[in-house]
Every structure is written in structure tokens, then in C-alpha cells.
């Protein structure tokens, strides 16, 4: 299982408290001082946010190597193969992120943007709570534990839905053992997949 992300979870809870406090102020016109005590948020933060101030994430988005739109595309790119049952390996994920960073560096004529930092992947995962890094052994163990009638039925319903959606015919389907197909990866490598 992926490690718990305490800082990000705390940030999300804090944002939720800020939104609740602002909603209460809008509804009941409660003073900022009282809201600050009740929701444990600094009064100045509540005032700033009430008058259009940006969230921490929004205020620092310009400091990220990839713009939010590219990060969203990367997140979606990770989710799709995971939905298909073949989550991308960490090195493939990093290569895709580097391609996006290099494109941005060329567009903005800034070669410094082409490099990702040492902790970029960990920070990316902290910004995108729906994704997590897991070892493939964990994923294979989850697959083995999911080998029950209801799970298999759900998977076949999903397969049928995708076949209809994309217009695939039954003669377009081939079967193979993906572990044999992905040559060069060890039995225990890191994958980027859905959190949980």
C-alpha cells in the first residue's frame, strides 16, 4: 500500500476548514475573529481568502516545472492504463514528465525548465492524491486477492462496456501474459496507479 501523505492530507483538511468558515461567514455574517477561533485558521488567512486571495497551491503554481494543465494531462495519462490493468512503471512515468518539461523549456526558451528535481515525483504525487506509487508485487497480490466471482463479473462487465464504447470486435481481442510481454522489468518494480 502507498505511504500515507500526512502533509497533503493536513493541507486538504485545512482547505476544507477554510471553506466551511467562509461559507458560515457568507451565510451568517460571523466576524473573522470568531471564525478564526472556531475553525483554527488565522484571521488574516480568512480575510485574504474572503476577499479573493489565492490558495497556497494556486499561489505557487508558477513555481512548478509543469503547468497545471500538463500535470492534469500526466495524471490522466497514468490513470488510463491503470484502468486497463497495466499501470505505467515509474521510469516510463518519469520519461513522460521529462518530455513535457522539455517541451515547456523549448516553448519558453528556458533550458532550466527541462530538468526535473530530485523530489519532483514525490511532490507530484502529493499534489495528486488520486495517484500513488506502489511496488508491482503489491499490485500482483491485489490481483490475486481479487480473484473472486463478483470481481471477475465486474471486470467482464467493464470489458464489455469498453468494447462497445470503442467499437472493438471479438476477433480484435488477443490474450498474453503481460509479465512476459514487458521484457526488462524486474518482478518488483514501482508503478504509478490509483491510490488505495
Rg calc: 22 Å
- How far apart are the termini? 7 Å
Strand content: 5-15%
Largest sheet: 2 strands, antiparallel
Question: What is the subunit organization of this protein?
Answer: single chain
The stretches of 5 or more residues where confidence is low (pLDDT under 50) are 1-6, 179-186
Topology order in helix (H) and strand (E) letters: HHHHHHHEHHHE
What is the count of β-strands?
2
- Order the strands across the largest sheet as they lie in space: 1-2
Give the fraction of residues assigned to helices: 55-70%
What is the number of domains?
2
Q: What is the general shape? A: extended
Mean pLDDT: 80
Briefly note the structural class of the backbone.
mainly alpha
Tally of DSSP helical segments: 10
What are the defining features of this structure?
196 residues, mainly alpha, two-stranded antiparallel sheet, extended, disordered N terminus
Amino acid at each position: 500500500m502507498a505511504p500515507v501523505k500526512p502533509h497533503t492530507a493536513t493541507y486538504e483538511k485545512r482547505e476544507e476548514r477554510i471553506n466551511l468558515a467562509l461559507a458560515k461567514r457568507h451565510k451568517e455574517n460571523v466576524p473573522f475573529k470568531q471564525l478564526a477561533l472556531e475553525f483554527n485558521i488565522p484571521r488574516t488567512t480568512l480575510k485574504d481568502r474572503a476577499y479573493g486571495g489565492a490558495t497556497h497551491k494556486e499561489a505557487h503554481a508558477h513555481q512548478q516545472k509543469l503547468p497545471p494543465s500538463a500535470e492534469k494531462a500526466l495524471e490522466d495519462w497514468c490513470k488510463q492504463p491503470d484502468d486497463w490493468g497495466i499501470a505505467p512503471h515509474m521510469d516510463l512515468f518519469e520519461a513522460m514528465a521529462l518530455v513535457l518539461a522539455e517541451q515547456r523549456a523549448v516553448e519558453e526558451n528556458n533550458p532550466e525548465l527541462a530538468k526535473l528535481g530530485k523530489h519532483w515525483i514525490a511532490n507530484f504525487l502529493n499534489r495528486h492524491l488520486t495517484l500513488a506509487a506502489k511496488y508491482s508485487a503489491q499490485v500482483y497480490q491485489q490481483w490475486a486477492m481479487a480473484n473472486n466471482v463478483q470481481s471477475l463479473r465486474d471486470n467482464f462487465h467493464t470489458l464489455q462496456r469498453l468494447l462497445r464504447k470503442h467499437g472493438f470486435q471479438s476477433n480484435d481481442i488477443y490474450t498474453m501474459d503481460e509479465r512476459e510481454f514487458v521484457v526488462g522489468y524486474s518482478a518488483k518494480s514501482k508503478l504509478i496507479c490509483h491510490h488505495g
